[in-house]
Amino acid sequence: ILSNIRSELGNLTEGEGIRKDGRAFPVEIQTKEMPYQGRTVRVAAIRDVTWRKQAEKAIIESQKYTRNIINSSLDMIITVDQDRRIVEFNAAAERFFGFRQDEIIGERIDRLYATPQESADMHHFMQDKGQLTHEVLNRRKNGEIFPCLLSASTLHDSSGNIVGYMGISRDITELKQAQAELLAAHNELKEKNEQLRELNASKDRFFSIISHDLKKPFSVLLGFTELLSLNIDRYD
User: Fold this and answer.
1) Rounded to an integer, what distance in angstroms lies between the CA atom of residue 43 and that of residue 101?
2) CA dihedral 120, 124, 130, 134 (to 10 degrees)
3) Is 169 helix (H, G, I), strand (E, B) or coil?
4) Res. 223: pLDDT tops 90
5) 165, exposed or middle or buried, with CB in 10 Å at 0-12, 13-18, 19+?
6) DSSP letter at 85?
7) Mean of the per-residue pLDDT values of the chain
8) CA separation (Å) from 88 to 22, 45, 53, 57, 183?
9) What are the E-state strand segments in 58-161?
10) Strand 39-48 to strand 24-36: parallel, antiparallel, or no bridges (unpaired)?
11) How far apart are alpha carbons 3 and 140 in whole angstroms?
12) DSSP E strand boundaries for the chain
């Protein structure tokens, strides 16, 4: 503190004060050079900044808590500024995309889309509607394309001005595979049902032909048996 007071700079210095009862408290000291009784002296203004330090600590703790929530999410959370440069990239996004935060933050979000056109389409939709839920194709660091369900919304400052956009994405690769398998099973079942219907129709035609072909012989046979029945007492 003395070194700062003796310097030519009238900058702020932080330090720690001790009260009469021995309790320590944070202080902010600002010095200014001025004339006094024919000499040049420095006046020091000391301010108790306990409340500000507590507020700063609370903000830091709140930021840590929010950061923990974001990084604990199983979904990918990515925020961009108005220039669509990545500002936030949580742990889940690192896992799914393969990028580390230090190599992707500051890059344009286009880098994470399968095609520049799809990225532009999503941006235009956000500008028009302010939010969206849509299936998109993303690109990993290794170039692999994978499907995601994207929910995006616009970020505003306290004055209501747009400061960026936030997207929450979920990898739906397994879901799409399950849907494809279900569709294939449905189509196979539909095909089997059609084959069964054709087999039943063929069976019905077959029995119709058989019954028609047997009708005449059986009519003759029944006629003879009726004749035998009526004359059984006369025949040997």
Assistant:
1) 47
2) -50
3) strand
4) no
5) buried
6) B
7) 88
8) 44, 40, 26, 22, 37
9) 76-81, 86-89, 131-139, 145-156
10) antiparallel
11) 53
12) 12-18, 24-36, 39-48, 76-81, 86-89, 131-139, 145-156, 162-171
Instruction: Read off the pLDDT band of 43 (50, 70, 90).
Output: confident
Distances (CA, A) of 85 to 2, 39, 89, 209: 44, 56, 11, 77
Q: Which amino acid is at 153?
A: S
The model's pTM: 0.60
Closest among 38, 59, 48 to 15, alpha carbons compared: 48
| Rounded Cα gap, residues 215 and 14, in angstroms | 114
CA distance 31 to 36: 15
- CA dist 78 and 106 (Å) reads 12
Q: Average pLDDT in the 74-78 region?
A: 91
Contact in structure between 27 and 48 (CB atoms under 8 Å): yes
What pLDDT is recorded for position 139?
94
Find, among 114, 132, 120, 131, the residue nearest to 84 by Cα: 120
Q: Is the pLDDT of residue 9 over 60?
A: no
Nearest in space to 108 (alpha carbons), one of 78, 86, 88, 90? 86
CB 151 within 8 A of CB 132: yes
